[in-house]
Amino acid sequence: MTEATVQARPGGRSARVRVAVHRAVGELLAEEPAEALTIPAIAARAGVHATTVYRRWGSVAQLLGDVATSRFSGDVVVPDTGSLAEDLERWMGDVATDLADPDVLALMRATIGSGPDGGSACTADRHSQLGAIIERERDRGGDVPSVEGAVDALLGPLYYRAIFGGEPASSEWARGLVATLLAANQA
Predict the structure, then answer these.
(1) Which of 63, 67, 112, 167 has its CA 20 to 30 A from that of 15?
(2) CA–CA–CA angle 53, 104, 182 (5° rounding)
(3) CA distance 116 to 127
(4) CA 46 to the chain's CA centroid
(5) Which has the closest alpha carbon to 124: 79, 159, 165, 174?
(6) Span 21-46, mean pLDDT?
(7) What's the pLDDT score for residue 96?
(8) How far is the C-alpha of 149 from the C-alpha of 131, rounded, in Å?
C-alpha cells in the first residue's frame, strides 16, 4: 500500500470509520488473544464492511501499527520543570503508569507481534519526547546524556518489564532509573 492509501482523511465518514475500527481493535484485544484478531472480526465489531478495512489498512499488522501510533502519540505530556532530573522523573512516572494499563499492554504486545514495524509504532513518540527533554536541557547549558543512551537506560528496562515481565514496573522504580542514568552521565 502506498502512504497516501493508508492515511485517513481528517473528517466525515472516513474519520468515523477510523474511530470505530480503532475502538473495535481495542475491544477485541481486551476480550480475546491477539491471534484472534482478523479483519472480518474487526470490521464486524466496528460495523463496517471488511473491504473497507482491507482497503484502508491492508492487513492486521498495518491496522495495529496505525492504532498503536495513534494511541502512543501525545498521550504523555513532556514536563518542563527547569530541571532535567525532575523532568525525567515526572515523565518516567507517567510512562510507567501508562504501561501498567492492561489495555495498553495488550495493544503493545499485539502490535509488536504483528510485524517488524510494530515496535516503532509503540515507541516512536516516546523516543521523540525523551529527545525533546534532553535537547531542552542541552539548550539550557546542562550536561546531558545522549538520547540513545537515555533510551537504553530508561525506556529499555521499563518496556522490557512491561512487555516481558509478570507485571509492569512501578512509577517509583521507573523514576529510580533516572538517578542511575544521571549518575552514570556524571562519571
Answers:
(1) 112
(2) 130
(3) 18
(4) 22
(5) 159
(6) 94
(7) 93
(8) 11
Average pLDDT, rounded, for the chain: 89
Closest of 162, 59, 68 to residue 121, by C-alpha:
68
Of 89, 90, 66, the residue nearest 77 (C-alpha): 90
What pLDDT shows up at residue 2? 44
How many Cβ atoms are within 10 Å of 179's Cβ, its own excluded?
A: 12
| 165-174 pLDDT, tens digit each | 877 889 899 9
pTM, entire model: 0.80
Q: What is the pLDDT of residue 67?
A: 92
Q: Residue 123 is placed in which grid cell?
A: 515507541
CA distances to 132, 140, 158 from 146, in Å: 12, 15, 18
Question: What span, in angstroms and rounded, lies between the C-alpha atoms of 143 and 84?
Answer: 9
Q: Which residues contact 6 (CB under 8 A, 6 or more apart)?
A: 56, 57, 58, 62, 66
Residues constituting the chain: 187
